Amino acid sequence: MRQTQSMDTQSTKETPTGKLESVRYSLGFRSILIGFIAAAMLLPLFMAKQVVSDRTYYYRTAISSIAKTWGTQQVIAGPVLVVPYTEHIINIDTVTDDKGETKTISRDVFNNKTMVLLPKQLNIDAEVIEKHRKRGIYDALVYQAQIEMTGTFDLGTLPDKTSSKNDIQWKNAWLAVGVSDTKAIDETFPLRWNNDASSPLMPGTMLPNLLPQGFHVKMKDLEREIVLPKFRIKFNVNGSEGLSFAPVGETSTANIHSGWPHPSFIGDIPPVKSDVKANGFDAHWRVPNIARNYPQQWLLGEEKHDLYALKSGVKLFTPISLYAKIERAVKYGVLFVGLTFLTFLIFEITTKTRFHVIQYGLIGLALSMFYIILLSLAEQITFRMAYLYAATATVSIITLYTIAILKSFGRVMLILLFLSSLYAVLYFILQMEDYALLAGAGTMMLIIMVLMFATRNLEHDS
């Protein structure tokens, strides 16, 4: 009797412990615990993202510094012909004196005016030669552009020189070209005027409100008697990021050639024809003056117009830069940790083996270190080799650690295969531009389907 009562008491005391152990080893509790560990891995992933952000900032600072010394994004506007003249007006007034006599008095009025004349025909031909400049470990894509501007001016639109009412001061006239970053002008050639005269280029446009920066040419030694004189302006300019032009001609055409295979056409009007190949691109624009909102000529000081309001050009686009790739890779970090932990959890269920929570944490840290290793290597070697080394190191560490835990090489092959496939898929997603989101979504659906298949026979916790 006493023995039975003692056994009942012992059974009563052991029941809470048995329930605690049952909850502790249940699938639901393990899933929640592993979920908390996976959430804790957001901290090292966030720190890795901060390192990538800092390196990105240093990279952009270095690129900006190189651009300031080499040349910024260039915008070419012009040429414009500026012709001062004196307008002679005779004012005739009729007055009546105190005696009632009417007299006619003529008075000469001289008004100094300046006309701005845009080209009738403008052709721009630019050869963009890509170059690379390094600042420490950072590499910047820059260019040197060989620009040739040809066309004609219609001098018939100037005030009539045969009239005594107008005195054109051709010796004070000048031709101006706007260049957004003049300190990057590398080489210049004299202006060719109607193929038989030339004049050197001089600094400044003398039009601070219309063309703040650029150069000009004095017209005093150049012929003015020709109605449609031809001009040719040739110069070399350094720049970075992109090259644009303002279509100031009555009819403007532009041709830009380059050996860079990744152009991005920018501006208000796209090219009418472009040919992009692996060894470079050719682009052609044709813009009539009806596309802009300023006239062909006007009086300086009486009208204000913005020649930069309409422009087109090309940007030397760098497809998915190094830091953009790594930043995108970090965004998949939570997915990597979650899927890896879920794989280990399924491995526990199917093999009746349990991993310690500390082991989960160390595996999560190894996954987080992948991005730091990738970043440090990619700044020194090619991204492909850096990714291969970083992924191999991460997968190898986790695989060897799992072998040491399970004391079995054969069981770990599935984990090795899964991690290797995961990093391989991520690499191909990072290489994509237009289809990266589609590939990522498809990969996620495939992984979910595989996990559903692996967990199809799970039973409720007893």
From TrEMBL:
Q: Which InterPro entries does the record cross-reference, listed alphabetically?
A: Uncharacterised_IM_CreD
PANTHER family found in the cross-reference section: INNER MEMBRANE PROTEIN CRED (PTHR30092)
Give the species. Answer: Leucothrix pacifica
User: Which protein are we looking at?
Assistant: Cell envelope integrity protein CreD
Q: Which residues cross the membrane?
A: 27-48, 332-351, 357-374, 386-406, 412-430, 435-454
Could you list this entry's UniProt keywords, alphabetically sorted: Membrane, Transmembrane, Transmembrane helix
One Gene Ontology term, aspect cellular component: plasma membrane
The yes or no answer to whether the keyword Transmembrane helix is present is yes
Q: Does the keyword Transmembrane apply?
A: yes
